[in-house]
Amino acid sequence: MRQRIRSDSIDVIVAGHSIRLFYESSGEDEQTAVLLLHGWGSSAAHMRPIAEWLEGDCLVYNLDLPGHGQSPPPPEAWGVPEHAELVRCVAERLIDGPYTVVGHSNGGRIALYLASEESPPAYLARLALIGPSGIRRKRTVAFHLRRFAAAALKAPFALLPGTLRTFSLDWLRHSLIWRLLGSSDYRNLEGVMRDTFVKTVNCYLEERLPRIGIPVLLYRGDRDDSISAEQIAKMQALLPDAGLVIVEGAGHYAFLDRPDVVRASLRHFLAHS
Among 53, 128, 176, 254, fewest CB within 10 Å belongs to which? Predict the structure, then answer.
């Protein structure tokens, strides 16, 4: 019988601000705890298949991160440190014992940041990360051209006096031409979420990864055009205790494209780590 998915919310204080976070849960308190973190532009609903795989064996918490799903945007532009602190607060409130974080894409970046803190959560036992971000990608010619164009657009405004310069740069950042220079994810955002996106995607973890002392299982779909093979290989090399599963025939959402492969290996990892 499929377990009932419970919907709830929790209020936590991060960076001096209170925020309400919505989440789903399933399972019982005495079972192995798992915390699911979705990627940018996604939600708990996209991670629900993983919760369903683990039913009967695990107590699963599936979060809507700020500005995604039912959770409101952060009160100000947050980067990865604030998101990691949010996850720490939620885990300390909800989980009483060892737990595993299963993160996809940016959820993986947040999990890696949290695990690499000088004082990581005591109960954080392992990570299973699907197409995790956080490693710099080799820049293309198109990227450098966009960066040059953005710098050229901003240059004249730097000559203006203080208040006028601030107003003009804000106008530029909200103009159509500026939006066209950004990624599709950036163009689809407004307000605080746009600034949060910029702070988040520009957080890289190469210097932090070697101090992660827990087991990490990495996944990459061999057709993933968001995270390259070189990025995953570098991440694996920097992590002291990491394994890698290449999911054939899968893209960035490997757990949706090839659920059979990800499900079997994840259950094995949870049972034997």
Answer: 176
Nearest to 267 by CA among 28, 100, 121: 100
Structural domains for the chain: 6-136+204-272 (3.40.50.1820), 141-199 (no CATH)
Cβ burial, residue 55 (10 Å; 0-12/13-18/19+): middle
CA distances from 235 to 24, 207, 224, 267 (A): 30, 11, 16, 22
pLDDT for 152-198, tens place per residue?
A: 666 675 666 766 666 665 655 566 565 554 555 555 667 899 999 99
Paired sense of beta strands 242-247 and 216-221, if any: parallel
Task: Record the pTM.
Answer: 0.83
CA atoms 243, 204, 113, 60: torsion sign: negative
Strands 32-37 and 58-63: parallel
d(CA 112, CA 101): 10
What ranges make up the beta strands (E) of 119-173?
124-130
